[in-house]
Inverse folding.
């Protein structure tokens, strides 16, 4: 039996994942977490066979949370289940230590196959992204956003998506001053001088789609 820790801040998503596990003989939902802090608490208190992780949650999340889990529980496989279909994000997630990446628009059968493979020690890449990752790898290595830290990349994505400094600060539980500092560093690293240039660059390099 594969014991799954489901981590997602949306109750309806967790319910759907519980139902998938309930009708699959070798899967069981052994725990749930609504934010990054609960993920950390759960993995320290209980043993699981796999962490099914949403990429964006309150508290520690994304790359930061993956790296934290890898430090605390290096043998716990992480399968990211995300709404983001950009190959750059998948590549960063895998580089950070996740064993697999699946987008939420897949059929349950795809997710079940991914869970089984990752829990068994393998790796799994969303079929929709696998080919793109291969062909985009060389070009992506040359993209300007590769110069950014994980936090800076996260801020860039949110800014390019139209969020204000204050909105980004609220989402990341940081001060507006800290987000402003990140933005200044991003613009310096990417050699852009205006918000419009920054957004154009983000769109050109598919930081958002």
């Amino acid at each position: 039996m594969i014991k799954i820790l489901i981590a997602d801040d949306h109750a309806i998503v967790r319910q759907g994942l519980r139902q998938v596990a309930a009708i699959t003989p070798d899967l069981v939902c052994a725990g749930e977490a609504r934010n990054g802090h609960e993920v950390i608490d759960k993995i320290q208190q209980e043993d699981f066979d796999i962490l099914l992780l949403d990429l964006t949650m309150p508290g520690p999340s994304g790359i930061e949370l993956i790296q934290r889990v890898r430090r605390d529980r290096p043998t716990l496989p992480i399968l990211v289940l995300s709404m983001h279909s950009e190959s750059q994000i998948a590549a960063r997630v895998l580089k950070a230590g996740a064993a697999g990446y699946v987008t939420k628009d897949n059929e349950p059968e795809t997710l079940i196959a991914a869970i089984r493979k990752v829990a068994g020690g393998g790796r799994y890449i969303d079929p929709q992204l696998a080919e793109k990752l291969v062909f985009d790898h060389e070009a992506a290595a040359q993209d300007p956003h590769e110069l950014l830290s994980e936090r800076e990349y996260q801020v860039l994505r949110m800014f390019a998506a139209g969020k204000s400094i204050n909105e980004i600060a609220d989402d990341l539980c940081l001060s507006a001053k800290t987000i402003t500092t990140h933005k200044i560093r991003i613009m310096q690293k990417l050699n852009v001088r205006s918000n419009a240039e920054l957004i154009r660059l983000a769109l050109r390099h598919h930081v958002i789609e």
